[in-house]
Amino acid sequence: MNRHWVDGVADAGIPADDRGLLYGDGVFRTGLVWDGQVHQFALQRQVLLTDAAALGLEVDVSGLTREMEHAAKQCGRGVLRITLSRLQTERGYGPRWPAPCRRIMSVAPLPARPAHWWGRGVHAGLLSMDSAGPASLSPHKHLNRLPQVLAQRALTPDSGLQEVLMTDPDGRVRCGSMSNLFLKKVDASGPAWITPADGSLMGVSRRSVASAMQRLGFSLEEQAVSMDDLQAAEEGFLANSLIGIWPLQRITQTGAQPESDTALTDWEAPGVQTRAVMAELDHPLVTDMLAAYGDST
C-alpha cells in the first residue's frame, strides 16, 4: 500500500536538486488515516501551514487540501506523510524567501505494534543528545531529523525500549525521538501535569492533549523538565499524531536491562489521569488498541 504523489501526480519522481533532499529545506507532518480520512484533518493542515510560514514557504492551500484528501481515500487505514520543500532553481544554501514549494504525499501501512503498549504501557530510555538545532525552529517540524534518527539507534530488538527520551547536555528532558512527553507531578498546590518547554514540537498531538486536559480540568504547564521532575512524577505518557497516547511504565538509562533495578520510574500504567486523557482524546487507534487489549486479557 506504499504510494506517493508529487504535486498531485502519482508515482512521479523527485528531482535530484530538490532542496528538501539536499538541505532539509522544508517541513512535514505525519498523520493517521482512518477509514479513508485524515484524523484531525483541519488541525493537521493548520499546523503544517504554520510550519511552512516559518520557513517562508508559500503553499497552494486548495492543491494541498485536494491532495491530502485523495491520498487518504487511496490509503484507507494507514499513515500519511505530507512533505513541503522549497522550490528554486538557484543552487547553494541561500534561500529564495518567500518561495513556492513542492508538495509530496506518501502513504504506508500502519506499523504493527502490540495492543499491550497501549493497555499496559511502554518502556522508554534516556539518551543525552547535543543541541538539535536552532531554538527558533524547534516548535516546527522541519526536515532536519538527524538527532531523532541517531536517537532511534537505541531501539534495538534486545533493548526492551519502545521510545527514547532525548536529554540536553544539562540533563533536561527535551522530548521523545518521535513523541511529546507529559508527566503528572504533585506539589503543594495539588496535582499538575508538565511537559518540556524547550525542544518539543508545537504540533497536533501536543495541542490535542492540551485541549483534552483543559476539558477534563487538569492543569498543564510548559517548563524545563529535570531528572528530579522525572523521578518525582506519579504517572506519565507519550503522545504523537499516529499513536495517540502510549502510557509510560518504566524509564531507564539507555543500555540498562529492561527489568533491571536501575529504573528511574516504575509506574502502574496507565495511571488514572492518563486513562482519562486517553478516553477524552478520542483517538481511533487508541480506542481500537484498548479494545483489542481488553479482548486479550
From TrEMBL:
* GO molecular function, a single term: 4-amino-4-deoxychorismate lyase activity
Q: What SUPFAM superfamilies does its record include? A: D-aminoacid aminotransferase-like PLP-dependent enzymes
* Transmembrane regions listed in the UniProt entry: none
GO BP field: 4-aminobenzoate biosynthetic process
GO CC annotation? cytosol
Family statement: Belongs to the class-IV pyridoxal-phosphate-dependent aminotransferase family.
The entry's protein name is Aminodeoxychorismate lyase
Organism in which the protein naturally occurs: Abyssibacter profundi
